Amino acid sequence: MAKLVLIRHGQSEWNLQNRFTGWWDVDLTEKGVAEAKKSGQMLASSGVSFSEAFVSVQKRAIRTLWIALEEMGRTWLPVTKDWRLNERHYGGLTGLNKAETAEKHGDEQVKIWRRSYDVPPPPMEKGAEFDPANDVRYAGLDVPMTESLKLTLERVMPYFNSEIAPKLKAGENILVAAHGNSLRAIVKDLFSVADDVITGVEIPTGNPLLIELDDNLKVVSAKYLDADRATELPKF
Ligand SMILES: O=C(O)[C@H](O)COP(=O)(O)O
């Protein structure tokens, strides 16, 4: 039986400012750093021994992983970074304040953009202030202009299934540091969550989710290590 731990990055500067972030590369706040440290301490006392870690190419997740590994005394662990674990691309909403956007377009519309399964936000305009298309880390990549959760899942899961699933099936314990919506995609798939139910699944920042999987990657048990900041998990 393998263990998979999913950590959403600690609080970011734009989580704090309540702005749509997506692919924009913001850093952790002090609180985010503290959440990452606590995650590492809880992982160390969980006694789970990891063989490797995976992370997006965004610094809020990379720093969360590094801080956690440091606390665990595991900075030597092999780490693979891949854009397919990035946050979902928030399109033309990137950089906007979530509350101001709700005042302008209505709560219902913003809820659809944030939580519907397959309605993508309006696309990013080419060359707009927060367009990551020319970022050197994405050179040669057809950077999306917007993504729904469905589109996010369609790039996260092929990566998960080809790079991470075989290791779990071989019994390795794996740590993944990523984002609210890229992790929501993994949870949707592993827990077989229906399209209209996944909207209610909120993954807290900096709170490791420990999932035990059988040889067919069926969920056997799941819990957040910080029980005080846990949210409801889907049935399995
Ligand atoms: O990209 C963002 O703004 C957040 O990381 C996730 O946002 P959400 O809760 O609006 O999906």
Automatic annotation (TrEMBL):
EC number: 5.4.2.11
InterPro entries: His_Pase_superF_clade-1, His_PPase_superfam, PG/BPGM_mutase_AS, Phosphogly_mut1
Isomerase listed as a keyword: yes
Pathway: Carbohydrate degradation; glycolysis; pyruvate from D-glyceraldehyde 3-phosphate: step 3/5
Top class in the EC scheme: isomerase
Annotated positions binding substrate: 8-15, 21-22, 60, 87-90, 98, 114-115, 180-181
The UniProt record lists the keyword Isomerase: yes
Complexes and interactors: Homodimer.
Protein name (database record): 2,3-bisphosphoglycerate-dependent phosphoglycerate mutase
Organism (species): Hirschia litorea
Annotated keywords: Gluconeogenesis, Glycolysis, Isomerase
